[in-house]
Automatic annotation (TrEMBL):
One of its GO terms (biological process) is lipid A biosynthetic process. Transmembrane segments: none annotated. It catalyses: a lipid A disaccharide + ATP = a lipid IVA + ADP + H(+). GO terms for cellular component: plasma membrane. One of its GO terms (molecular function) is lipid-A 4'-kinase activity. Its EC number is 2.7.1.130. It holds the Pfam family LpxK. It comes from Ectopseudomonas oleovorans (Pseudomonas oleovorans). This is Tetraacyldisaccharide 4'-kinase. Belongs to the LpxK family.
């Protein structure tokens, strides 16, 4: 287990040594609360786009299902006749310049795995830049859009926003409820009271705390050929090598078990880079990965490598709320 994995386990399961980090947590909280206070006061260089900006983010470190929800939002807004643009930090990307327009034929190393996945799946105009406000300006200079979705920009206070959606893993929750480095929170838990909507990934039903949404497996897709087949392609009890380089690999492994398959888990760090040797496992079994991993493996994928396609499925109550907000922000939509 890596040091990062041990720290993550401590945050969510508890460890007395974390008390030693509380002075650093106090300093961290002071910094993030100061940034938030200055933003609310309108101080500093804050860019307000001429179109509505919807931020999808989290207050915890680690994966919460932001990319599937972004994909849902793109398609839902398009169904309402809206043209959508996306901006992202582009974590792990190595473009030759910034801001960088992501195209479907680029490599994940150049564009970043999540931005490339979004563009390949939807064709949406997408710009990456750690400075989200600069990314929005660059996108609007190239495209006429009705709405900007900001991927993981909750704490990027140089960009004004019209809606904030926060995602939380329902199984893990907020861990010990403490901020970095003593806990997994990027901002104090009180921040949740200020956002527009909270969504719990994996929750069974809506609650007073927020809306529920689930990641619904829809198909198996061959990494090398792009062939799409039904989930019945693997019979119950099928053993597979399961690869997940996401914020919470265990969620992927649990999904495969819920589909009555027998995954041999191979967790990797979020945004991990792969090659054929690294993914050569024994015994010989089909290899099943996430779509985020697949965009980095197509060039060297074997014939029996697949990814599990999943779609975010929020509750009708969330969809109704979202439609009301879109009508308010974009009259006539």
């Amino acid at each position: 287990m890596s040091a990062a994995d041990r720290l993550l386990e401590a945050w969510y399961r508890g460890h007395p040594a974390l008390t030693l980090l509380r002075p650093l947590e106090w300093l961290y909280r002071r910094v993030v609360q100061s940034k938030r206070t200055r933003f609310l006061a309108g101080e500093g260089d804050i860019y307000r786009a001429p179109v509505p900006v919807l931020v999808v983010g989290n207050i915890t470190v680690g994966g919460t299902g932001k990319t599937p929800l972004i994909l849902f939002l793109i398609e839902h807004c398009r169904a309402r006749g809206l043209k959508v643009g996306v901006v992202s930090r582009g974590y792990g990307a190595t473009p030759s310049s910034l801001p960088w327009r992501v195209r479907a034929d680029q490599s994940a190393a150049q564009a970043g795995d999540e931005p490339l996945l979004i563009v390949q799946r939807t064709g949406v105009p997408l710009m990456i830049d750690p400075d989200r406000s600069r990314a929005v300006r660059a996108l609007l200079a190239e495209e006429s859009v009705d709405l900007i979705l900001c991927d993981d920009g909750l704490q990027h206070y140089r960009l004004a926003r019209d809606l904030e959606l926060v995602l939380i893993d329902a199984a893990r929750g907020l861990g010990n409820g403490r901020c970095l480095p003593a806990g997994p929170l990027r901002e104090p838990v009180e921040r949740l009271a200020e956002v527009d909507a909270v969504l719990f990934n994996g929750a069974e039903a809506d609650s007073a705390e927020g809306y529920a949404f689930r990641l619904q497996p829809t198909a198996l897709v061959n990494v090398a050929s792009g062939e799409r087949v039904g989930l019945e392609h693997f019979p119950p009890g099928q053993a597979v090598h399961a690869v997940a380089g996401i914020g919470n690999p265990q969620r992927f492994f649990n999904t495969l078990e819920a589909l009555n398959w027998q995954p041999v888990p191979h967790p990797f760090a979020d945004h991990a880079q792969y090659d054929a040797t690294l993914l050569s496992f024994e015994p010989s079994l089909p290899l099943l990965m996430t779509e985020k991993d697949a965009v980095k493996c197509r060039a060297f994928a074997a014939a029996d490598w697949w990814y599990l396609a999943v779609d975010a499925a929020p509750t009708p109550a969330f969809v109704d709320w979202l439609d009301g907000e879109l009508a308010r922000l974009i009259p006539g939509s």
